[in-house]
């Protein structure tokens, strides 16, 4: 029997605990979530449910007494919460961002203390942004003046997630004319008259979330609060953001799943012209494209999350791809499902207690957190010339196969995370196996399509892969050492993200085909995913009709069952798909 993928089992356990969101009477039902939204609050008792279950333990590495074995496990539990309300995923995501520098560079005392308090229910925050400077670290005006025994901290950090509710704030401060350091500030150790918590910011979505700020007014911080060596805060921040960028797609996956489920269910219940609107070709097309996009996003997200422990030195590029692409796909999917729901998508009551409009408003934050879409595209564009220069370098086939199968396996757990800042890099130095390994993936697809048990869509799949190969060659042959801020560079970065997604989908199919079996192995979903990516690349490609009908039938079966959410695992028949 195949090994169970622990991430799925953990997420299923949480899903059962939180209950069916369509049913009333629980803090995580859509009914209570929307009611609390009207009060700019979180549902009564909801935080207690997550705390009692131990959600915070997934913010703490196992070596420090938590349950965070690998980032993909947190991805799946955060997706489970995000299906109901992003506010909780954002709260714990902000806490993870605040804690990561300590896990990566903190000393034994800092790590042990923070881990104990987080597991016990304390929150952390990442105090970097400033009202006048945003996230421009080199312009930071918050200063930590050295004094005997420590520092005196002065200045304002705003806006900061969890700034008021958090006990610990990982704070970026100027410690010299051109020196910036991270300090672990424990508010319980500060003189109460030396800091001021600022009011919650009123936001379009995420109502009830603590987005506020803090002003330090001569706060004494002990020297032991410095996280790692002084003067390296810029490097620390850039590396720590790679981890949260790889985790943020969980918010999009959860939102997409709920939006798709609501729209699909409504499309079968709502009748026009004597038939369900699901029978209308335009509605059918919206639903198919939305479900295919979720599968693409899932493949990209899982690979990026597992990269933290499988290939951490590649995360500088891969996390930016995931952070850009998955929220963008999520926004488009939610907007498309709004078209299916029509006027109901705009109401604060009615279908699922009017939760859709909340999902749409909340999800807008996913593209803004930890670098906007443009910031991430700029970083990708900056690395593309180096990737292109090495695109013909081919690692050994067995090494590539092992890497792909470990990154995208749904039947084996990722290696356990042993946090170390030195494992992360500021750039990939031109190495990107998901682009440079495309020829190897193509050969493996060709081999699978030549076997006696070849997928029923083999001919179309081979043609689509060949089409993508031509796009690959044209794209990277034209890459130059450009201004990464230019529009051509930004457009090329988007193309890079879509080609990365194509590799992720193919590698996911190859890594799990034997274990999953069923419709997953037959490859219809893969064909649809690659065709959808070609369409996003501007190619004139229509989605294959028969696989599209089969995919939507599988989605409908999933929507009728609970607990379940639409995923590539729904398409298989083996143990990993149970």
Written overview of the protein:
There is one protein chain. This protein is α+β, with helices and mostly antiparallel strands and 578 residues long. It has three domains: 6-119, Acyl-CoA dehydrogenase/oxidase, N-terminal domain (Butyryl-Coa Dehydrogenase, subunit A, domain 1); 124-231, Butyryl-CoA Dehydrogenase, subunit A, domain 2; 239-577, Butyryl-CoA Dehydrogenase, subunit A, domain 3, CATH 1.20.140. The protein has 20 helices and nine strands. The strands form three sheets. A four-stranded antiparallel sheet has the order 2-3-7-6, with helices on one face. The two termini are 12 Å apart. The mean pLDDT is 95. Its cofactor is FAD.
In short:
With 578 residues, the chain is an alpha+beta fold. The protein has 20 helices and nine strands. It has three domains: 6-119, Acyl-CoA dehydrogenase/oxidase, N-terminal domain (Butyryl-Coa Dehydrogenase, subunit A, domain 1, Orthogonal Bundle); 124-231, Butyryl-CoA Dehydrogenase, subunit A, domain 2 (Beta Barrel), CATH 2.40.110.10; 239-577, Butyryl-CoA Dehydrogenase, subunit A, domain 3 (Up-down Bundle), CATH 1.20.140.10.
Overall mean confidence score, pLDDT? 95
Mind telling me the C-alpha Rg? Answer: 24 Å
Output the CATH homologous superfamily of the largest domain. Butyryl-CoA Dehydrogenase, subunit A, domain 3
Following the backbone from N to C, one meets helices and strands in this order, namely HHHHHHEEEEEEEHHEEHHHHHHHHHHHH
In spatial order, strands of the major sheet run 2-3-7-6
Assign the structural class, choosing from mainly alpha, mainly beta, alpha/beta, alpha+beta, or little secondary structure.
Answer: alpha+beta
Instruction: Please indicate the percent range of residues in DSSP E strands (runs of 2 or more).
Output: 5-15%
The domain tally reads 3
Number of helices: 20
Helix fraction, binned, reads 40-55%
């Amino acid at each position: 029997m195949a090994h169970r993928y622990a991430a799925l089992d953990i997420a299923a356990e949480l899903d059962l605990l939180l209950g069916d969101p369509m049913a009333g009477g629980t803090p995580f039902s859509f009914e209570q979530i929307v009611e609390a939204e009207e009060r700019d609050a979180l549902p009564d008792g909801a935080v207690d449910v997550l705390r009692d279950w131990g959600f915070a333990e997934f913010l703490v590495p196992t070596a420090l007494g938590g349950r965070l074995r690998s980032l993909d496990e947190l991805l799946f539990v955060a997706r489970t919460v995000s299906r109901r309300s992003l506010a909780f995923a954002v709260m714990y995501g902000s806490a993870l961002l605040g804690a990561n520098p300590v896990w990566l560079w903190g000393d034994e005392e800092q790590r042990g203390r923070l881990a104990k308090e987080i597991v016990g229910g304390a929150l952390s925050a990442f105090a970097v942004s400033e009202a006048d400077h945003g996230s421009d670290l080199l312009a930071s005006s918050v200063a930590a003046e050295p004094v005997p025994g420590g520092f005196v901290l002065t200045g304002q950090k705003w806006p900061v997630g969890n700034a008021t509710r958090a006990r610990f704030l990982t704070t970026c401060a100027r410690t010299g004319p051109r020196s910036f350091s991270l300090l672990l500030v424990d508010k319980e150790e500060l003189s109460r008259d030396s800091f001021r918590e600022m009011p919650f910011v009123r936001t379009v979505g995420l109502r009830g979330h603590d987005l506020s700020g803090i002003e330090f007014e001569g706060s004494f911080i002990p020297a032991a609060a410095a996280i790692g060596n002084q003067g390296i805060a810029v490097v620390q921040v850039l590396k720590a953001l790679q981890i949260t960028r790889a985790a943020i797609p969980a918010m999009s996956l959860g939102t997409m799943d709920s939006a798709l489920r609501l729209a699909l269910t409504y499309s079968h219940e709502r009748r026009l012209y004597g038939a369900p609107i699901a029978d209308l070709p335009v509605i059918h097309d919206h639903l198919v494209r939305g479900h295919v996009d979720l599968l693409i996003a899932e493949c990209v997200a899982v690979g990026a999350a597992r990269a933290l422990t499988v290939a951490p030195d590649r995360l500088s590029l891969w996390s930016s791809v995931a952070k850009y692409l998955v929220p963008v796909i999520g926004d488009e999917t939610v907007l498309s499902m709004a078209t299916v729901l029509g006027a109901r998508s705009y109401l604060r009551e009615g279908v699922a207690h009017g939760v859709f409009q909340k999902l749409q408003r909340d999800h807008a934050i996913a593209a803004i957190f930890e670098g906007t879409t443009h910031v991430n595209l700029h970083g990708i564009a900056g690395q593309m010339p180096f990737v292109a220069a090495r695109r013909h370098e081919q690692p050994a086939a067995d090494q590539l196969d092992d890497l792909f199968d470990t990154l995208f396996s749904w039947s084996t757990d990722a290696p356990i995370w042993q946090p170390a800042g030195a494992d992360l890099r500021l750039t990939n130095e031109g190495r990107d196996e998901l682009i440079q390994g495309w020829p190897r993936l193509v050969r493996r697809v060709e081999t699978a399509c030549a076997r006696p048990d070849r997928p029923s869509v083999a001919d179309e799949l081979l043609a689509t892969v060949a089409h993508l190969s031509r796009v690959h060659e044209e794209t990277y042959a034209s890459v130059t050492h450009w201004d990464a801020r230019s529009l051509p560079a930004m457009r090329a970065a988007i193309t890079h993200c879509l080609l990365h997604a194509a590799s992720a989908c193919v590698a996911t199919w190859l890594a799990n085909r034997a274990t999953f079996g069923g419709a997953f192995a037959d490859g219809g979903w893969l064909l649809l995913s690659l065709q959808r990516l070609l369409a996003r690349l501007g190619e004139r490609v229509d989605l294959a009709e028969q696989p599209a009908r089969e995919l939507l039938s599988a989605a409908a079966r999933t929507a009728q069952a609970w607990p379940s959410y639409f995923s590539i695992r729904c398409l298989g028949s083996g143990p990993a798909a149970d």
